[in-house]
Amino acid sequence: MIDIEPLRFAWTRAGADTLALGRLHVPPGQTVFLHGPSGCGKSTLLGLLAGVLSPQSGRVRLLGQDWAALKPGQRDAFRADHVGVIFQQFNLLPYLSVLDNVTLPCRFSPLRRSRCQSAGGVEAVAQSWLGRMGLSEGLWTRHADALSVG
Description:
Strand content: 5-15%
Number of helices: 6
Mean pLDDT: 88
Order of helices and strands: EEEHEEHHHHH
Radius of gyration: 17 Å
Helix content: 25-40%
Largest sheet: 5 strands, antiparallel
Number of strands: 5
């Protein structure tokens, strides 16, 4: 599912590497727990895996697709169909509820919407994900900006 060939990423051309990784392969169905101190590159790695960032060297493949082989619009479409990253603080629309933020990608991807429909509906799938993440049901209808960032 995820295949990384030795890569490096730095926020500036002259800057030190923010992230340098060797080879990493994560097969489908495997769960990975990403942890580390603030500033160690966790969010940067998620950005690379989601094709939002491009490494200075190395390769990142998701579901066999090399992000570097796609044009920007193709990356956006592939991301809409196959990637879901819910950050603790960033990239949530503050005026939408938690549930609405989670279901929002289905508005941009017919493929994703179709997969959810065949699994019980968009809202049911989103509720299942939120439940598995341990977010209490009482928080699902709160606006994102009303939640703690902790």
